[in-house]
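Hey L., structure's done. Input below.
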Amino acid sequence: MMTLSYMVQPYSRGTFILLVTSAVIRWPADIAKESLVSRPSAHPVSLAASAPPAAVDDDMPMVPAGTFTMGASDEGEQDERPAHSVALGAFCMDRTEVTNEAYAECVAAKRCRPWDDQIATRNHAGPEAAFRGAKQPVVGVSWFDARDYCSFRGKRLPREAEWEKAARGTDGRKFPWGSAKPGAEHGVFGRAFGRDATEVVGTHPQGRGPYGHDDLAGNVWEWVDDLYDPYAYRRATAPEGRGAECPAVLATQDELRRDGKQGFTGSNPIPNECERVLRGGAFNYWGDGLRSSNRVHHGPSFRLVMSGFRCAKDVAGTSAK
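Output:
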């Protein structure tokens, strides 16, 4: 595994310029030997906590089975188009983003890697402690870290289509709360990078989604399970809310480069690997970019100061209707 040290510069459309300052190769055997990090016992959460994991929080509102409209036909980027119907089975998803406190339990159980405890400092995002309150969303975790945490809890990462249905419901709303322009009452966004930080999860109930989920717009970008497929909404599997497998994704990215369609996937370069999707916007993002159809992508090993996650699980005995 390669660990990158970089500076993050917020850019447009939910993408970020990553200025790589160093790279360290870390083999799986090295990662397996990684020791837990001791931390102060003040307000920031300690990853060296010795208490056993708390009982799994079952605060997971259910999203019922059925069809919804995914994507958009007249706004956003080309990878958000076209709007199309997707049928999903019922599922449950965490009401809030996973917190530092909850993630630290997984680390203490030796089931998760510690978060990157220098991510804020290295990215010039302010002091690390500003992001490490017990009830703030965990940041500085990769897609792999998010996957491992959800497995520890007996859950999984939500699929991209599931995340969007939880945010949009069946009425095609632009934002989790409806069509009204984002305001401070709806979530944590538009903050100054380097001066401001995330906030405690679940503190903006007016921004709640149609099924009762908090912070689906702002605070942190959220890793979801899917590979990023620029053509996902054009494929035969689109009605199932699924994109292509990695070989077809790589071929699509090659095609976009060959045809000079740099802007198809946003302002970041077209990927050269199979990346993973993030959804929802972050504390330093602008209001219109919080639209629930917005798709962002990064390499699964990236650990960012503005990205976290939440988990999902299946509802037994249900199927798409």
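The chain has six helices and eleven strands. Helices lie at 28-32, 100-108, 119-122, 143-152, 160-168, 246-258.

-- N.
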